[in-house]
Amino acid sequence: MKRILTLCGLVLFAGLIFSSCTKDDDEPVLPTVAFNQLAGYITGDVTAAYGDTLRFGIILQSNGEDNLVKFTIKANEETLLDSTINTSSFTFDFYSIKGINATDVWTFSATDIAGNKKEASITITGEFGQINSYTTILMGAQDNVATESFLSFSDNQATKYFQANAFNNQDKIDIFCFYENTATHQNMMSLGSPGSNITGVFTGASSPDNYTVKNLTRFYKTTLTAAQFDAITNDAVILDSYNAAESRKKASVLAAGEVYAIYTQSGLNGLIKVIAVTGEETGTLEIAVKIQKQ
After folding, report:
1. pTM of the entire structure?
2. Which of 99, 35, 43, 110 is nearest to 73 (CA)?
3. What gap in Å lies between CA 179 and CA 181, rounded to an integer?
């Protein structure tokens, strides 16, 4: 009985060896895809803030017999590079800028002349900034004595002021609401700031014309929809939406559903969604705001 057990064991073992050797002989030797490990390069999965520069160094090596003939780069399954090569080794350096996606999966692949293919991936996870969200802020135009016309985003608060109190807090004032109806600017509910050089709208000693500290907020009309504004949970889209070169010192002819990107004197980026516009010089403007935390 012992002989039979021993023999069976040997046969089984031999069979395993035979099967294993056959499998190894049939498996192709793939090329390799590696990443530059020097400082400054992306060497593996990492987090990045919006606008960060991502530097990649890709190192391809053949299996020693079959030349590499194809190199491909994909980001989130979209092909960015599909290059034909013919070499035993290949290096490729490039950089990208982190955008608004929560995650980006970069995939690099090498294919040799025998059809053997090797892939390697890196995941970039967005590490975006926190924001303050204000679902509704009601502002009054210059002759509205019941609703505040001035707004501050200081100290992570959205604080409204009437004209007299705003003068006493002029270093905090970021925005004011006003209605324009002149020969050149007719029937426009608008937003401006003390630093925008808009004069003659508010009157008296406490007018922004007489401020010694005049904060400037710039405005840029975006193509974002109200629904896209509502979906924002961090500062990535906010930063991506602002265009400094095309920004203006005021936002005019405001209409419900429009979204404006702003940049304040204190260096905060934000978005304003227009909810409703009512009336004229005594009218109101209802907005929602999403702005970076200080």
Report:
1. 0.85
2. 110
3. 7
